[in-house]
Design brief:
Blueprint: H1 9-13, H2 21-28, H3 46-49, E1 61-65, E2 74-76, E3 79-81, H4 83-92, E4 95-99, H5 105-117, E5 126-130, H6 131-139, E6 174-186, H7 196-201, E7 209-212, H8 215-225, H9 235-250, E8 254-258, H10 262-268, E9 273-277, H11 278-287, E10 291-294, E11 300-308, H12 316-326, H13 329-339, H14 348-353, H15 357-360, H16 369-373, E12 375-376, H17 383-394
Length: about 400
């Protein structure tokens, strides 16, 4: 899942995007987005409450929920606007109420659960959910199957993302952005850290290592290091990964299990190396070129944040038009040039090269086929497995 989006070279020089992301983070984090109509984004307003059938003629509104600072942004007359969103509104004559309420996946799921369980409208026509939460929503029957006739650009997905374990036919999900979980380190503080075994056992790193509280990302990397496949592992293989983490935890080698705060710890020199998300390190490199991100020798984890349509959404077709629009290579290139996570759309690299060749060559945004071959997607797990695995993992730090 994302933290704050990440400034790369194109964020400073891309035509039409205006304010750089670094300045935006300091000036506007958490503020509301503005649509072309000038209406402050919101959910549950009178316009939303009056919506009717999702396919009704003349219904020209779309309500989107996303993570903060996860879309291309500039300032116009002191207010945030999103160039690709404005272009969508102009193209389809649809007013987009774009909101950023997803700060924590578990928290957002808890907010949506009673609404969806009651079979009522969430107020959103589409929201952006990380793989495991998307899978949970599908298992519970809380999201609508997509009409692929409205999303012909879905065929533009990069091959590695066409058939994820949790949605092998992409019947319910469309990637917004993707990312890699691997190892980050400051090469002014330590030599190269290229494997999970090195991260968790090298005495030079003792007490100066963090790993993520994300069960799938952290155990997935350990399983890969141990030769297991996160896409088809057994209970015993999961337990073996927990054992390795337990040893490193008990010895004090692992300093902390973290959320996104690992970036501050790495930037301040409080830690030397950590399990990290790829886009975060592009952000840190903006201020410190000594920051490094590597896919571990055993392989890295691949994840996506996915657009979905919740049950009872009033504007499903408009949501599908939105998905199709962001699967266009030219549009996706503009989005990814600002966000700097993995672009999920084939052909976007060539489009980005038209305005920023350096950024278009970044393998953390456009992995090669060989890069993708080294990345795994955590397999779909049952409810009982999730409880079991989470209990084992959380016992490491709770």
């Amino acid at each position: 899942m994302p933290s704050l989006p990440h400034p790369g070279s194109a964020a400073l020089g891309m035509p039409g995007l205006g304010l750089s992301r670094r300045r935006l983070l300091g000036a506007a984090a958490g503020t509301a987005a503005v649509s072309a109509s000038g209406v402050l984004a919101g959910c549950g307003n009178s316009e939303s409450d009056a919506r009717s059938n999702p396919d009704s003629a003349g219904q020209q509104v779309l309500n989107v929920a996303n993570w903060p600072l996860y879309i291309d942004t500039k300032r116009v007359d002191g207010q945030k606007v999103h160039p690709t969103l404005l272009a969508f509104e102009d193209k389809y004559d649809i007013a987009v109420n774009y909101t950023e309420p997803i700060n924590d996946m578990g928290e957002f799921f808890s907010k949506m659960r009673p609404i969806l369980d009651a079979g009522t409208d969430t107020g959103y026509d589409t929201f952006v959910l990380t793989d495991w939460t998307a899978a949970k929503m599908m298992q519970l029957g809380w999201v609508e199957p997509l009409d692929k006739g409205n999303i012909p650009n879905l065929s533009n997905l990069v091959e590695r993302l066409l058939a994820p374990p949790f949605d092998p036919k992409r019947e319910y999900t469309v990637p917004w952005q993707s990312g890699i979980t691997g190892i980050a380190y400051d090469d002014s503080q330590t030599g190269p850290v290229t494997s999970i075994n090195d991260l968790l056992t090298n005495p030079d790193l003792a007490g100066a290592v963090t790993v993520l509280k994300d069960m799938r990302d952290t155990t997935g990397l350990v399983m890969l290091d141990q030769g297991a496949d996160p896409e088809k592992f057994t209970d015993d293989q999961f337990a073996s990964a927990i054992e390795m983490l337990q040893t490193a935890t008990d010895s004090g080698h692992i300093r902390q299990y973290t959320g996104n705060n690992y970036t501050q710890m790495l930037a301040l020199g409080d830690i030397k190396a950590c399990v990290a998300w790829s886009g975060d390190i592009i952000q840190l490199q903006f201020d410190n070129p000594n920051m490094r991100f590597v896919v571990p020798d055993g392989g890295g984890m691949l994840w996506s944040d996915n657009m979905m349509v919740p049950n009872q959404a009033a504007n499903k077709k408009n949501a599908e038009l939105w998905m199709n629009y962001y699967c266009d290579p030219a549009v996706s290139a503009k989005l990814s040039a600002w966000v700097n996570y993995i672009c999920p759309i084939a052909g976007a690299q060539e489009e980005m090269a038209k305005f920023d060749e350096e950024l278009a060559s970044n393998p953390l945004i456009f992995p090669s086929a060989a890069d993708y071959a080294s990345l795994s997607i955590f397999r779909d797990i049952t409810g009982d497995e999730e409880t079991n695995y989470n209990d084992q993992f959380q016992s490491l730090y709770i």
